């Protein structure tokens, strides 16, 4: 039986969007770049983590799926086929916090708010 291992979010610029999601999600951080990762980037002609086309967000406690943010060549043009549903005890406060990080409200519904991340990917904040 298959197990969920990773979630992957497409991006125009992976490092920028990874910073948004590392701040948006409780318990996740951008994985540190050790010498091996820096060498991998250098071998690909990339001078710094800012240019990394695939940035890893790791769960702080080791539980839960890893999240990769990957640069793709095409711009987002239609609704996501898969999106994240988030929840917070104080919906309005969390909505405002996410907006402060760069999210935008796409729609308000009685049971959730649909938002977009800074690169246009939809996600929902449940009430």
Q: How are the SSEs placed, and which strands pair?
A:
Blueprint: E1 6-11, H1 14-24, E2 28-30, H2 35-43, E3 54-59, E4 66-71, E5 84-87, H3 91-101, E6 104-108, E7 112-116, E8 122-126
Parallel strand pairs: 1-4, 5-8
Antiparallel strand pairs: 2-3, 3-4, 6-7, 7-8
Summarize the amount of helix as a percent range.
10-25%
SS element count, helices: 3
- Proportion of β residues? 25-35%
What integer value in Å does the Rg equal?
15 Å
Q: Label the CATH architecture of the largest domain.
A: 2-Layer Sandwich
Q: Between the first and last Cα atoms, what is the distance in angstroms?
A: 32 Å
The helix/strand class is alpha/beta
Mean pLDDT: 95
List segments where confidence is low: pLDDT < 50 over at least 5 consecutive residues: none
Spatial strand arrangement across the major sheet: 1-4-3-2
Domain Glyoxalase-like: 7-126
Protein name: Glyoxalase-like domain-containing protein
Organism: Stackebrandtia endophytica
Pfam families: Glyoxalase_6 (PF18029)
């Amino acid at each position: 039986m298959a197990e969920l291992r990773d979630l992957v979010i497409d991006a125009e610029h992976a490092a920028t969007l990874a910073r948004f999601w590392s701040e948006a999600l409780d318990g996740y951080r951008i994985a540190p770049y050790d010498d091996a990762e820096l060498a991998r980037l250098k071998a690909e002609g990339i001078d710094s983590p800012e240019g990394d086309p695939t940035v890893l967000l790791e769960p702080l406690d080791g539980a839960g799926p890893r999240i990769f943010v990957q640069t793709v060549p095409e711009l987002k043009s239609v609704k996501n086929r898969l999106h994240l549903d988030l929840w917070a005890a104080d919906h309005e406060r969390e909505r405002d916090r996410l907006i402060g990080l760069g999210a935008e409200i796409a729609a308000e519904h009685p049971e959730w708010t649909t938002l977009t991340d800074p690169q246009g990917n939809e996600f929902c904040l449940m009430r």
